[in-house]
Write a structure and sequence with these properties.
Layout lengths: L7 H18 L6 H8 L3 H7 L3 H15 L8 H18 L3 H11 L3 H13 L3 H12 L8 H18 L6 H15 L13
Length: about 200
């Protein structure tokens, strides 16, 4: 008999099943029916937490971010290279690229999904932002830098290459991307009354 989705453990089973199915079968295999069968959680209960499959896909991506630690190599270059390596491993090795592309496609047709993703991402610690904050504390970056934009300088090239184009990065390429991003961070304008992602 299917379990009730009444605990954090049950929700973790659903997300774990969704991640496994996405990695094994791509988007074709990631359905509510399949997630229910894999997780042992009733479909009706899954729908109460995630009314659409797109929302479950967003939650699945968010669960990956929540697992990523903030590196502590002692330098911004080293920390950001570690972040880039983790992202590469999850997107390529973890089979998450089809999932991310599916979410982007759904968001283009439904603004509500954009808000769901943004709220979910904000609730999880971002290792890029965490690495930049550590660099500020060490004096490697000015304390008035726009952390969100600084994170985007790293995230943008990696996302385009790994997710949009489907091309993995080599350690040398990641190092070059990070060096260029750090150089660009020095020219970012100070924060203008906005809030950075946590």
């Amino acid at each position: 008999m299917a379990a009730r989705l009444s605990s954090d453990e049950a929700k973790r089973r659903v997300v774990h099943a969704a991640r496994a199915l996405a990695a094994e079968s791509g988007m074709a295999g990631l359905t509510i029916d399949a997630v229910s069968a894999r997780s042992g959680v009733a479909k009706t209960t899954i729908y109460r937490s995630w009314p659409t499959i797109e929302e479950l896909r967003i939650e699945t991506i968010g669960s990956l971010i929540a697992e990523l630690p903030t590196p502590d190599t002692g330098s911004l270059q080293g920390d950001l290279e570690t972040c880039a390596e983790m992202f590469d491993a999850h997107v390529v090795g973890g089979g998450m690229r089809p999932l991310m592309l599916s979410v982007l496609d759904a968001e283009a047709r439904n603004d509500r999904l954009v808000n769901i993703r943004q709220n979910l991402m904000a609730a999880n610690a971002d290792p890029l932002a965490g690495s930049i904050r550590k660099a500020i504390d060490r004096g490697e970056l000015p304390d008035d830098i726009d952390i969100e934009l600084a994170s985007d300088l790293v995230r943008g090239p990696l996302f385009i290459r790994l997710v949009i184009e489907g091309r993995p990065t080599t350690p040398e390429q990641r190092s070059s991307i990070i060096r260029a991003a750090i150089t660009g961070m020095a020219d970012l304008r100070p924060r203008q009354g906005g809030s950075d992602r946590p």
